[in-house]
Model the fold of this input.
Amino acid sequence: MMNRRNFLTAAAAAAFAPASFVRAAGAQRRVIVVGGGLAGLSCAYELRKLGFEAIVLEGQGRAGGRVQTLREGLDPGLIAEAGGTRIPDTHKMTLDYVREFGLSLEPFKDGDFADVMHLRGKNYVRGHGPEPVWPLQLTAEERSLGVAGMAKRHLGELLMAAKGSGDSANVPAAILQQDRFTLQEYLEKQGLSHDAIELLTLGADTSVGMGLAMLISLNEQVTKGYFHIRGGNDQLPDALAKQLETIGAIRYGCRVTSVGQNDTGAWAVLERGGEQETVRGDYVVSALPFSVARNLFADARLSMEKQRVIRELQYWPVDKVFLQMQRQFWKTEGLSGFANTDLTSNKFWSLGPESPDKRGLLLSYVVGKNTAKLSVMDAEGRVRQTLADAEVVFPGAQKNFEAARTKSWSEDPWQRGGLSRFDPGQLSWIPINARREGRILFAGEHTSRWNGWMQGAIESARRVVSEISA
Ligand SMILES: Cc1cc2nc3c(=O)[nH]c(=O)nc-3n(C[C@H](O)[C@H](O)[C@H](O)COP(=O)(O)OP(=O)(O)OC[C@H]3O[C@@H](n4cnc5c(N)ncnc54)[C@H](O)[C@@H]3O)c2cc1C
Done:
């Protein structure tokens, strides 16, 4: 009941509190957040801080989505990051949360070790000593420039132009201008030979839009070092989820099957244990990858443009195969355990404690078309193939192999892909992916300029929070 005393207290609070908080607290606006990945979790967490009644509906029995740390079946202490793995020192929003929840960081890929490049049947060590003599038909100029020199000459100017855009949430204009080409086409346009392009892009998917390729390179250019959360990156979404669990603001096992809106509200229809339920609010935030949201919006009155991006945005298939090794034997040979290759396993990374004598993981990270080769194999076949590739790149792998875990993101029914993949011309879709449509708002890495990163999910949540609380 409003008496004179609590009216005066409320009026005094209104005079000093931020406008958004006052309005939210007064109207108790209710927000339904669909999807409990980093985007959905941080969105609900921040909205709750502002006084909104936000609730997350998550389809799985766990939060975190594409931040998933595998431990079972591996030696205790070994951490297999199936999804989000490294945090660049420039990703302030991710690091802010790490600090807020008191998590501790360790360096990712430390030590002065060399990487391997495997091509045409041979291993080449890069990063230490002179440029290897590549078994390729390079022009004299390409040979004398080497890999770093070619990258600088043909991509350096573009990256310098983009660097000026700093922390802006927009894709740098210099990058957007080149986005009509694939990476392959752009490098051909630069006059590079076929073999030089093969060398420069070893382990990468050259059919991707040039814009996305440049965003990835730009991140590498501005990053001085990478971190990993000690004990596993899943502690970050877990910390957010715990905050929401304690106030009953997250519901697990709720598969949302449709989202709708009218002039007065918005709703999500969910299935749980064979029952259907409609959850209503003032707003719905879709924090789902478009790959699993294609059929959700029939009642949502979305614009044609929005319907198109939801239907057409593609996702990179990504497979990871983790091989537990008895010893990190590659370190005793001065190698980092990282490699780019022309094998089925396009890339190897390694994760493990510092000492080479301790157990560690060699991880095959397959992105793009090579995942099709793995998709016809069962888990055992994938491990066998990866181990055979590992033996070629890091001789001794077979002898040291103890156990394995696999993860295919395109086979995961809650994801249907690893990372949003922007084909030529599609990087300009980001603002369309992100744009609110009435009472339905959109979060997720695919709506951010930091797409493909945990920071993209977090940044998108901050944007949605400011849209709702404006
Ligand atoms: C292989 C891989 C490597 C990566 N490496 C890095 C890295 O090194 N560094 C980095 O910063 N980032 C990395 N990322 C990216 C980072 O993990 C993602 O950008 C981020 O986690 C995406 O969060 P999100 O909330 O946007 O989406 P998601 O995590 O996909 O969250 C979506 C959520 O929606 C749920 N859901 C799906 N359908 C429904 C439904 N119908 N109803 C209810 N819930 C549903 C899902 O279960 C999931 O929890 C990597 C990702 C992958 C896959």
